[in-house]
Amino acid sequence: MGAIKVGIIGYGGSAKSFHLPFILPNPDLEVYAFLQRAPPPPSSGNPSENPPGEREVKEGKEKEEGRVGMHCTIDFPLAKHYRTAPEFFADNEIELVVICSSQMHGEYAEQALKSGKHVVVEKPFVNSSREAGALVELAKEVGRVLTVFHSEFFFSFFLSHIFVCSLLVLFVLLGLLSLF
User: Fold this and answer.
1) What is the phi/psi pair of residue 102, to 5°?
2) What is the average pLDDT across 73-84?
3) How far apart are the first and last CA of the chain?
4) Which of 51, 109, 127, 170 is such that its CA lies 20 to 30 A from the CA of 142?
């Protein structure tokens, strides 16, 4: 069995900071496609647009010009790029959809499930418990995994609270602090 082909919806901060850093080092996952509405920039480096051997030259220019990170076709030239949801969801090779767009989480999750894909949804999951319940039922009906990604535990304010609480417990255990 090969790597799971991942389709990512959105190419903003969430995709680049919270999802791709976990997907890329995992040999069981392959970044296969993106749904990014923005058209590729001219000379994006997409292999279908460039003759063999030209990609390496363009990559150096893109880094110099600060274009890396602007578009999925620049950073992932071998991945498929879709600009519309119907085209994206029609790709039967996509097995897992990661939804990290700025909106439409519920609609995208429903479309992904109905097209037979497993789904990871960035927070906020949906706008109501009724909508969440309907998606959970749909996932059960189609036999697919539906889950929500939440990265709050890695934010500095949370970690600092854990650190302070740990220090308080340590001080109490050592008798350096007494509670009244």
Assistant:
1) -80, -15
2) 94
3) 60
4) 127
Whether 43 and 88 map to the same domain: the answer is yes
Question: Does one domain contain both 102 and 180?
Answer: no
* Gap between the Cα atoms of 9 and 34, Å rounded: 6
DSSP string, the chain: --PEEEEEE--SHHIIIIIHHHHTT-TTEEEEEEE--SPPPTT---TTTS-TTHHHHHHHHHHHTT-TTS-HHHH-TTSEEESSHHHHHH-TT--EEEE--SS-HHHHHHHHHHTT-EEEEESS--S-HHHHHHHHHHHHHHT--EEEE--GGGSHHHHHHHHHHHHHHHHHHTTSS---
**Residues 128, 170: one domain?**
no
The β-bridge partners of 34 are: 8, 81
